[in-house]
């Protein structure tokens, strides 16, 4: 073999090896879950979350046990404010929420793993899950409209920069590879132990696709793909309750909040911050219609978060920053408290990387009755909520608000029966008989 032949063969081998490497990279990117679980960083993070899960799950009890406790008389050993039946409305309970559902953390360069992240959060007591949803700008090269703007779970900082290991959450997804749907499936399979209470799913939309006159259905199709991803949970939607109200399309938000929390045991309540009204002028099947699925809309408070819009009428759901509530003037606090009694309020720190501290959470919950300030499950900074016996969620995932912050149902007024002395027939009216 001469030198020329040798170099030719060597060149061919180099080209083949390079091609194989490129193909493997493409396959890894498309598959998304190729080998990130073998990384030391993933293993360390999983171990940290499992350790926190085991610590926080110790002694945890279900909603049914919480109600038994708070509905019983207070004792010296277990002092508490008794919860009467006219104050057991859904809106009257703080709920332990988990932000970045399906994400193991850490915030920067962390890992999506819906199975481990969601089951760990449930064992910690989380009953509200915030799914942060956006499209990926890296997919705009796709020729099909659906692929360019396909919704997926994201972790972004306050500048919109992406902060996760791409291998655990592929850039360009579709219905068969949707991390949103995988997260919904894990919730459907694990969140409904008997007596565990309702599950609240908050669809927090960061952005909607830009309007294009050539693609008028672009935003609706984007929302529809979110709705499709919720399919594993739809059979447990509160809209399937035969009595108690009609909750599709946010029809009876006030009633949703004032019904007894017991009515929703084993059910899902869907909330969303995006305006989905345009579905009401379109034709989509109900299981693909996000407006139909959403039971309560979270509207803008003082600060806009994501795609949240201002309320057109009385808001029954509000999404705002912790900083906004901390800045409320003293002379407006009483009015804000009264409004909060019939409002499902959710607060995030304006910086997504920050876990609100104990002082902030204490002030917002005890002063304004903020319903949910979600945690990051991997953060040690949330440990104060689980400390025994004083942590707000040390035992239960739902906790009654203090009486001064509760909505109190008005008693039903019933017409009194007519006394028998009202007429000569002992109160019985007879039809005259004609001759």
Automatic annotation (TrEMBL):
<keyword id="KW-1133">Transmembrane helix</keyword>
<keyword id="KW-0812">Transmembrane</keyword>
<feature type="transmembrane region" description="Helical">
    <location>
        <begin position="6"/>
        <end position="27"/>
    </location>
</feature>
<keyword id="KW-0472">Membrane</keyword>
<protein>
    <recommendedName>
        <fullName>PI-PLC Y-box domain-containing protein</fullName>
    </recommendedName>
</protein>
